[in-house]
Amino acid sequence: MTASQRAELSPLTHGGPDPWTRRILVVDDDEAIRGMVSDKLEFEGYEVWTARDGQHALEVLNRRGLPHLAIVDLLMPR
């Protein structure tokens, strides 16, 4: 599918969210790392959700649904 075909099908032309944007959840207790990773991913065109720990990540998932990818720090306090 070409970009123009996607644009024709995209809800953005009708005011909805763009289904072609890939969503990534970044979970890390270190604010600097979380910020650096999310900044780079946003620069590359991804929609980035962040969470400070596992509990917060579950809250984000309950509120927003599932991302296409999750990048998770394995050593966090919660």
Q: Mean of the pLDDT scores? A: 83
Judged by helices, strands and strand pairing, the structural class is: alpha/beta
Q: Categorize the overall geometry.
A: flat
Work out the helicity level: 25-40%
Q: Give the spatial strand order of the biggest sheet.
A: 2-1-3
Succession of helices and strands: HEHEHE
Work out the helix count: 3
Largest sheet: 3 strands, parallel
List low-pLDDT spans: 3-16
- Give Rg in angstroms: 15 Å
Give the beta-strand count: 3
Give the N-to-C terminal Cα separation: 42 Å
Strand % is: 15-25%
List the helices and strands and how they pair.
Layout: H1 3-9, E1 23-27, H2 31-43, E2 47-51, H3 54-64, E3 69-72
Parallel strand pairs: 1-2, 1-3
What labels describe this entry?
78 residues; alpha/beta; three-stranded parallel sheet; 40% helix
Report on this model:
- It is a single chain.
- This protein is α/β, with parallel strands linked by helices and 78 residues long.
- The model is unreliable at 3-16 (pLDDT under 50).
- The chain is 40% helix and 18% strand.
- The protein is flat.
- The protein has three helices and three strands; from the N terminus they run H-E-H-E-H-E.
- A three-stranded parallel β-sheet has the order 2-1-3.
Question: Would you kindly provide a brief summary of this structure?
Answer:
The protein is α/β, with parallel strands linked by helices and 78 residues long.
